[in-house]
């Protein structure tokens, strides 16, 4: 299966991937908000983290957003959002405090479909804790800045490193492919109007080009 494909990861590969991981990872100081907005993924640790934030009083509702994509079509039998919501229910989160958006297939749709859903439900929110995998937090920030500028966002994620990112469904080789693809989107998506632009440090650009040359290209947009 693709998610279990691998090659020997050299020390240079790992060093380059760590440079990209650190650049992509951002985390704000937590504060109470109107809503926890979960941009779902293949990593159910995010759902557990959302449940922890809810229990600690950071917000009174959780919205899970995510359908099925390149990675999760081989992992979940249901949409990402429904799968995460089930985990949250098992964690003791009341069903009345869970909102599900299960049609989006990328970050832009996570935002657009969530805004539409909240409008349809007449739910007014001004402050939002947006959570994703650590390596997706910069991309989420840039997309929210472009597509939802009227709201106040706190960006957060479970606290784990590149080496701790693999889990039972995805190995380190695929994690590196994923972050290479995420960085490519940060470079190219501003031109398409999907997110705000950010300067890419030379060391990050060099690490990206090196990893692409080493065939970490499974998550690249062609």
From TrEMBL:
Database matches in InterPro entries: Cell_Envelope_Assoc (IPR051599), DUF218 (IPR003848), Rossmann-like_a/b/a_fold (IPR014729)
Domain of life: Bacteria
CDD domains: YdcF-like
Domain DUF218: 34-181
Cellular component, GO annotation: plasma membrane
Protein name as catalogued: YdcF family protein
Organism of origin: Leptospira kanakyensis
């Amino acid at each position: 299966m693709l998610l279990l494909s691998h090659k020997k990861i050299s020390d240079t590969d790992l060093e380059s991937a760590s440079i990209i991981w650190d650049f992509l990872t951002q985390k704000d100081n937590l504060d109470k908000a109107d809503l926890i907005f979960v941009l779902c993924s293949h990593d159910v640790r995010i759902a557990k983290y959302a449940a922890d934030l809810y229990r600690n009083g950071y917000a009174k509702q959780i919205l899970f957003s995510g359908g099925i994509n390149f990675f999760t079509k081989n992992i979940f039998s249901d949409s990402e959002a429904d799968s995460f919501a089930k985990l949250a229910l098992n964690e003791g989160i009341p069903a009345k405090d869970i909102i599900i958006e299960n049609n989006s297939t990328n970050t832009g749709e996570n935002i657009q479909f969530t805004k539409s859903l909240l409008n349809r439900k007449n739910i007014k929110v001004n402050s939002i804790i947006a959570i994703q995998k650590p390596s997706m937090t910069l991309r989420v920030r840039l997309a929210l800045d472009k597509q939802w500028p009227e709201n106040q966002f706190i960006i957060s994620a479970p606290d784990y490193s590149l080496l701790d990112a693999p889990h039972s469904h995805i190995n380190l080789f695929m994690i590196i492919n994923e972050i290479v693809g995420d960085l490519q989107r940060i470079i190219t998506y501003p031109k398409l109007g999907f997110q705000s632009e950010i300067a890419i440090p030379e060391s990050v650009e060099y690490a990206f080009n090196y990893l692409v040359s080493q065939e970490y290209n499974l998550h690249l947009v062609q």
